[in-house]
Amino acid sequence: MTVPVLDPVSQVAHRLAAEWSRTHRVRPDGGWWHFEPTGGGPLAQQGWKLHVSTVPTTAAEALRRVAPILLRRGVRWKSARTVEHLARLCSPPSPVSQAGKFVTAYLEDSADVADLAEELHSATRDLPGPAVPSDRRYRRGSNVHLRYGAFVGKITYAGPDQVRSLVVLSPDGTAVPDSRKPGGYRPEWVPDPLPPVAAPAPPVGTGLFGRGVRISGLVQRSVKGGVFRGELAGRPVVVKEGRSGTCADVLGRDAVDRLRNEWRLLRHLRGTGLAPEPLDFFVEDDNAYLVAEFLPGVTLRRFVERANYTGGVAAADLRVLCREVAALADGLRAHGVEPRDFTPNNIMVDDGRLTAIDLELCAFAESPEPLFEGCTPGYGKPGRDSDPDFAVAATTHFVLTGVDPFVGIGHDPAPHVDAMLTAFAPAGVEVEADLVRDRIGAPPGTTRCDTDQVVEDAVTAGEELVDRAEWDRGAWPWPSAWASEAFHPACFHTGTTGVAQFYLDLFRATGDRRWVRHAADLLDRVVSGTPFVPGTTPPGLHFGVGALPWLLADLSTLVDGRRAPLLRARSHALADALVAHDPGAWDITHGWAGIGLAQLGTLLATGDLDRRGHVLGVVERLLDGAQDRSGLPVWLKGSDHSYGYAHGSAGIGYFLLVAGTALGHDAAVGTAVRAARALVALAEPTALGHSWRGGPDPGSALWTHWCNGAAGVGAFLLATGRATGDDDLVEAARGAGRAITGGRAFGSANRCHGLAGDGDFLLDLAEPEFLDGAERVGRKLDALRVRSGRGHAWAHEGGSAPRPSYMRGHLGVHAFRLRLAGLLPHAPLTIPGSTP
């Protein structure tokens, strides 16, 4: 057991393991201690779970109290492995459904639920603990909660979005979603083992808890509580909730105390214009609620990001904004408030006015009270997250670059700041940039990787994958920390098929045939271990196994004559199975367009004429399913439709274009052309060019990426213009390219909605101004490159540790850099000779 025994929970677990060694096995696994009766049979698939909640300061005591009860009864159960793990479960960004789940007991017999719940309640009734939102609370104020759900994680990807979901089985064997939403603690066919709870008496007065506040909408919900829009006496307000027991620290303080701290600070700042005006504060059912004035405008983060996508902020405006950020921090300090967690998320911008919000971690200057711990990654000085000068510099960095001064968990951003400012900030802000460098302590130096380094980085990443693969782990043979929690382990987007594509990229870039062998070995494992089960296995080109036949077909042209027939046979068998079942979607990442594109790719690779009929069948389905919306062919998802490449008309249009061209199908090409021309008419001016929203909703984001916006739609326009000789479409594609080169958009480093995907489109355009733009993308990626494992990589989207996935992780970034170096001919999952 590797967990340090200094942790209080670990100490108790070690003692329990010794005391109960004759009857129980105690083992650590991930973030949990598992307690299992020796000689017990396999765990049932589903049943009742009892959760006991607590807070870090009482976790060890709670375990001491509940363990004998559970061990005597011989049930299987687990507890959080450490105090730190419990604190993470009850703090952002942990999912709301995980709050408070310190102990979980698995009961196969519902007859045991009531007695055990009462015994656990009696043992812990005097200890603090948060409510578990996904469960029924045993009694008012109890730390014991229950819900019916899956024990062993029966998983399906059968929904239209093809994301991972847990299910339970109904009495007739039907898979039903294992709901973890508030109020959904049991399926309708499962009797409640507890008597109904009497509803609390209605509050005296009107509105929220009788305080006169009428709630009108949810702004956001997190494990620590919700933020709501509302109205009080005709005045728009914001209501913040602090849930008891969440964000708990070693002093016993929690989100309630944080919100109370914010209330005091707001009252102190009343009338200054530096923060919202406070209106009310109260505690109900142990949770705290703060009512404050509603501030118009948007957060500084959204203001900067929106401007960067549209190219609408000049250097002079950025300088003014930087001064306003500093003035806001100075104003808070002048009124005796130390700005902590001072970030673009916690500043509102409205008509040039900046206001601080979410002051719960701030403190009164010279206050003897201990500071509340925590800060947003990148905005706290390592080892000293309360340094306001560092936070102001970090926020200024974001204003100048549109990028957080954060390159991933565990990486010091300071060595990257100079390169990030050089690569991302515009000319004319040198004074502000130098101030950021000085306050963050950034050493000078801007790394520019040459071709040899690009190849070395990519090859090292591939070699680490080969060496660390362990197939006894299951369908994903690498560490679980590298896996996607949302998508199928064999998918292209984040799974093993994408890894195989990367191996083939390495072969094409280096000529080293070992990568062909590695790709063949990997795909052999994937096909053998992932049989296609209609209704369970996701079929999508990107989010399912739809790309597998195509990669198998490509690989069959590269291996020796002994292995090629088997690869072709497997390719054709899976392709036949995929086209025989409705995926429940139309688009190129989940649905028919992607399945059809894989059929076409397989046809072109192997010459198998059976594929021709399958491609034609998919074309006819899509033509029959098209509907017209003001001249744009659309394919509905419910009542909605999308414009972009990943989910909408652009991606479907691309398939119809290349399939129609290959088959000589005029109607398919004609529909693609109509889609392209209609999308041109829907473009909106951005930067020096134009881009597209995700769909007809005017409030949807105006991105410039592969999935939605200029890179994906522009690639479709370019392909259509080149295939048909329509110069207007090619010119429209150039406008999409200028939306990227003339703006400062940053979603992530990756291909799906980030720099690598944007850069790929610029390479498709293949004209000097766009090749220069692709080089600038390369320099930005160099600035964000970090040491990871044996080599170099980029943070996963959201700033988490690097993961080896093709569309959302660092493999696709390596592939773009290889293409930028002239070593790869085209983007993946495209038809050579066409764009994208």
Automatic annotation (TrEMBL):
Q: Which UniProt keywords apply?
A: Metal-binding, Zinc
* Keyword Metal-binding appears in the UniProt entry: yes
PROSITE patterns for this protein: PROTEIN_KINASE_DOM (PS50011)
In which domain of life is the source organism classified?
A: Bacteria
Q: Where is the Protein kinase domain?
A: 198-551
Q: Which is one GO molecular function term here?
A: metal ion binding
SMART domains for this protein: LANC_like
Q: What is this protein called?
A: Protein kinase domain-containing protein
- From which source organism is this entry? Actinokineospora bangkokensis
What phylogenetic lineage does the species belong to? Bacteria, Bacillati, Actinomycetota, Actinomycetes, Pseudonocardiales
